[in-house]
Structure formats: C-alpha cells, structure tokens
Amino acid sequence: MEYVIKPKFEFKISDEDIDDIMGTALDCGIYYWCCRAEVVGGIYHGEYASDEISRGGRLRLYDAESDDKWILTKNKFLKGFKAWLENGWGKDAIVDGRVDTGMIDAIGADMIVQFALFDEIVFG
Description:
The chain is built from 3 helices and 5 strands. It has helices at residues 15-29, 74-86, 106-118; strands at residues 34-39, 59-63, 69-72, 94-95, 98-99.
C-alpha cells in the first residue's frame, strides 16, 4: 500500500522573484497560448510588463486562437504559485525557505500562470 502526503511549508517570495518568473513566462513560457500581454490602464508601474504584477498592476493576456482574454493580478499569481507547489511541481524551487527562480524554467512559469488564471493546467 502507498500513501500520498502533501506537506505544508512556509516560504518567502519577493517582488523580484515575481518579476523574474513573469519575465520567463512572458518571454518564453506562455507564448504558445498567449499571443499578447498588455498592461491594464496603459500606465506601467515598472519598466517592463513583467514588472506589473509585483507592483500591484494588472496584465491582460490574450488567447492565441480565440477572442478570450484574462486578467492576471498579484493575488492570482500568488494563488497560482501556491497551487503549482501543492500539485507537486517546483519542489527544487524552494531553498532554505526562499524561492530560487533559477530553478523555474519556462514550463514552470507557464504552469504558475495557468494555475493563477484557470486553477488548473488548460494548455499544453
């Protein structure tokens, strides 16, 4: 007999970590299902679109094959990151209670955004 145990643990994620993950997602993670990302309101809170989420801004993400679009916020991102970990991904990305973004590749960043928007992996 085997048992599945999902341990709970605490970790810290910084605004810089969020920026790094969003940069990876926008540069090469979500490109296959998201054809465009725009800052909601048109006023950048940071230098790049990837800086928006950590600074309380919102990104509108456009589906590559339909008219669907979604709004990503910091709260959604954090929920998606948590779900990504709880679903068994990213174990190596938490080191000494902190996020190591060097361990989050394009696939991981994509999954985090999908968990944030859809509560599950919809694409890929």
